[in-house]
Amino acid sequence: MKICPRCQKTYADDNLNFCLEDGSVLSEASSEPPPTVYANDPRITHPQPQANQSGAPAGWNTPQQYGMQQPVKKSSKTWVWVLLILGALLLVCGGGFAGFLFYVGSKVENLANLANSSNSRSTPASVSNRASNTSSSNSNSKTTSVPTSDRDDPETIDLSIFVEQFSVYGSTEMKDDELLMGSKQKGFYYVLVAPDEYGTDDADTRVTLRNVDNASGSLGYGLIFHSSPTPLQQDYAFLIDTKRKKYRVVNHAPQKESSVVNWTTSSAIKDGSAENTLEVRDMDDKIDLYINGTMVTSIKNTFGFAGGVPGLYSGDGVKIAFKDFEVRK
Questions:
Q1: Residues 270, 276: Cα–Cα separation, whole Å
Q2: 152 part of a folded domain
Q3: Are residues 136 and 64 in the same domain?
Q4: Residue 176: CA atoms inside 13 Å, Cβ hemisphere, count?
Q5: Inter-residue contact 169 to 126 (CB < 8 Å)
Q6: Domain range for residue 34?
Q7: Is residue 110 very low, low, confident or very high in pLDDT (cuts 50, 70, 90)?
């Protein structure tokens, strides 16, 4: 039997070398009570091994060496506080992480609301925020190829306000008096809308465009009108395809592009990289659509955004040059 010289606890296991209460080196117990002097001895911090019956130090040939086993302390409430602190940290960190996920999820959802799938492709369409700077100038010039109306108060939209330093959706560049614009990949369309001051209600909206490289695309390119100031939330788009000499009309809702007029062949469209002028005339009971001075179709305004603005549309990575963008009232 062994005894702890500090706490006087005895152990029947002769192979045990340390006290399980305070870590002191155990000694052989005697039939007599230990001298009282041991009760006040300082704790042995560097104990020497006790000799066993063979004369070798205790534990000499065992894997357990001094310092490898931490002494077992007396029972305390410290572990309870540790668990409480850990639980509080988990609640705080877990809640913050959940909040972060909610924030990221909301941003992804907002971005998804701006990405719209085309009817002809399953891939999402791209979108850009509207231009933030405004500039306008007055011009009395008229396009002779387009029949004039009684609206002779033109506002020319400065195309340079649409130029963005960087966009993940598309590219914009001013070259001479033209805005070169295109989505960054096939299956996507890129839309920019004008500032609030340019309304298309009770107005003639006009733009001249050309397919710079005479490239092919299935989505088309053209003029946005009656649009929400946030692109692709609520609007109409009057689009042409000069390769196929066809036009179509669509409207947009969040994550959706719907046909109003399906692709239709028109001899009024100039093919190749020639310039084509698109015009939208908003009337009391209808909207007349013109290509190069020829009215090609009329639609009812059942989906336009009240007080909407004009914009530009380019799809399928085709680079389009726009110029002479104006609103007449």
A1: 6
A2: yes
A3: no
A4: 5
A5: yes
A6: 1-73
A7: very low
